[in-house]
Task: inverse folding
């Protein structure tokens, strides 16, 4: 568990000055996968695993970043920010600075110490947490702050335009705007959202398959392109369908035969996932856990079979969960091709569930998974 006091001490010792500390959480997505860039719906929750950024100003015009996780310090000149990535952890903070500078902000010299406990490459948005923590810390020095949704957009742009990953808005949005004990249904078209309380007797159990996930790799981008090709065909026929958000399953019945088979499958997942996500929010708000669980299962198999974004390990993790005490619903969460499953579990069974899932997964796959019981946390904030 993260401790801001520890990072403050590290920063003070290294830079001989008192920092201000900011915190930005990772996230788990309950349902709504690969729908954000199609201007659809997602329902994530921020989690109590986060990136912390301790920042203090400097007078020599340098930007000095220290990562406690990597045990590494790097230095840049505030007056000549890099304009592209170099395949290094500092690309994420530097991307944010580059976008803020493009917005007309003067980036001053500063020292920033970073530390995070969001598992990396696990589909829990460690990169969004790093971007958002940086944005909060740096704008505290420039004095130019933005409303939450704008802040999220700027961080998304840093990932799209600087780092070069074609991700949607979900991760940065929830890291900025998450609320303690709530999931958030986000309409990715206009960024309006609805908060859905997660009942106190429901635990979020996150199970890491230990298969590395990355959205910088080609699969995420390929899926997105395949889905967009299907959208273009529908739009060519009836117009008014700039995004799959605007398409229906009937459209696929009419014009699916003109699509590449893979494109048709991707579109089927996204269109049906939007329907499931809105229905899942209703179910959660009505306390209808049975329906919520069923929708999560349908979402998983749509993601696995039609979107082909799961992997053997995640399918096994989801299947094993079905037989365990207390399960409400389980599915692969995040960008896909590895990473974690999210399991909604009755709180009083969560420990037993976690133990049994770990034992059975290890027995079947020969891999010891990391499984942790989380709760929905608040969004990014200054600490202390
Ligand atoms: C990654 C991206 C998000 C979203 C998910 C899939 O986390 O960063 O924008 O597309 O994958 O739902």
Result:
């Amino acid at each position: 568990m993260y401790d801001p006091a520890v990072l403050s001490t590290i920063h003070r010792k290294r830079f001989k000055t008192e920092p201000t500390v900011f915190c930005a959480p990772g996230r788990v997505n309950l349902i709504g996968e690969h729908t954000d860039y199609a201007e659809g719906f997602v329902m994530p929750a921020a989690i109590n695993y986060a990136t912390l950024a301790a920042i203090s100003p400097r007078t020599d015009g340098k930007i000095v970043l220290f990562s406690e996780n990597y045990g590494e310090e790097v230095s840049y000149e505030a007056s000549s920010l890099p304009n592209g990535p170099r395949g290094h952890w500092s690309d994420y903070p530097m991307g944010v600075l580059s976008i803020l500078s493009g917005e007309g902000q003067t980036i001053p010299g500063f020292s920033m110490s970073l530390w995070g406990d969001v598992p990396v490459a696990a589909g829990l948005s460690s990169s969004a947490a790093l971007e958002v923590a940086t944005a909060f810390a740096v704008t505290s020095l420039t004095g130019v702050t933005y409303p939450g949704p704008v802040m999220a957009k700027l961080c998304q742009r840093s990932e799209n335009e600087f780092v070069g990953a074609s991700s949607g808005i979900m991760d940065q949005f929830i890291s900025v705007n998450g609320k303690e004990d709530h999931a958030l249904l986000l309409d990715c078209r206009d960024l309006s959202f609805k908060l859905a309380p997660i009942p106190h007797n429901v635990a979020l159990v996150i199970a890491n398959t230990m298969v590395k996930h990355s959205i910088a790799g080609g699969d995420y981008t390929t899926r997105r392109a395949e889905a967009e090709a299907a959208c273009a065909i529908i739009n060519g026929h009836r117009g008014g369908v700039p995004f799959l958000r605007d398409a229906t399953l009937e459209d696929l019945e009419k014009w699916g035969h003109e699509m590449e088979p893979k494109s048709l499958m991707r579109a089927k997942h996204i269109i049906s996932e939007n329907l499931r996500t809105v229905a899942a929010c209703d179910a959660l708000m009505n306390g209808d856990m049975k329906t919520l669980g069923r929708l999560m299962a349908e979402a998983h198999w749509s993601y696995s079979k039609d979107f082909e974004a799961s992997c053997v390990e995640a399918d096994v993790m989801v299947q094993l969960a079905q037989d365990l005490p207390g399960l409400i619903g389980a599915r692969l969460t995040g960008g896909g091709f590895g990473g974690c499953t999210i399991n909604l579990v009755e709180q009083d069974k969560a420990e037993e569930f976690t133990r049994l899932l770990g034992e059975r997964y290890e027995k079947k796959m020969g891999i010891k998974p990391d499984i942790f019981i989380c709760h929905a946390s608040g969004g990014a904030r200054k600490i202390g």
Notes: The chain has a mean pLDDT of 97. The first strand starts at residue 20 and ends at 31. Residues 4-199+378-383 form a domain with the Ribosomal Protein S5; domain 2 fold (CATH 3.30.230.10).
